[in-house]
Structure formats: structure tokens, C-alpha cells
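User: quick one, fold this
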Amino acid sequence: MRITILLLVFLSVALACDIIVHLKSDTDKKFSGQIAASNGKKSERWSYVKKLTKNTFQQKADECGLKDWEISTFDDTGKPAHTVKVTLDGIGRVTYKVGDDLKPVQKDRQGAICKGQCAPL
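Assistant:
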């Protein structure tokens, strides 16, 4: 009985999802960015007007890893610039930096399981 309860607790923690995604400007160009989690929930569309501005989106869900996460950028007119898709799962955080080309690039991650264009652990 104890082993069954212990196994259930372990599985619920192992299958948990708590992902934090930072989107950070590495350019002085004006743009906006948005993050969409694998369960369809989206951040608001953030505006960036200077270098080193950062916003954070956190998703706690039971259904991670089912679909791709999307990190999207838009130019100063609101036209889509780039969208990066990756699979994120587990518990951890990732940071995306956006340069002059407005393409979000994953620069670091801690703990999160990632498939696609991922930074090393």
C-alpha cells in the first residue's frame, strides 16, 4: 500500500509542468512579442522599445508536452516577423532573446525538457 502511494506521488510530480519563459529584447528596434503555451494559453502581446526589456510568462499545467510552444515576434506595424516552435516540458525556465532580425533565439534554459531549437542545459 505504501509503495502504491509513493509511486502515485512520484508520478504526479514527474508528470507535472511548471515552465517559465522569459522574452528579452536585445535590440533597440521597436517590436512586440507573444508566447503561446502548448495548451493554447497565451501571454498578452508585449511591446518592446529598448534593449534589455524583459517580460515573463509562466505556465503550470497538467498537459504539457502535447503540442509545441510558440514564441512570436511582430514588427512595429504589428505584422508577424518570426515564430519559433519548440516542445517544452517538465519544471524549469528558458530565456529567449530577440535581436535586430526580430527572431527569438533560446539563449539559456534550466531544468526544462526541450525539443527543437534549444539552448544547452
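User: anything notable?
Assistant: Confidence is low (pLDDT under 50) at residues 4-14.
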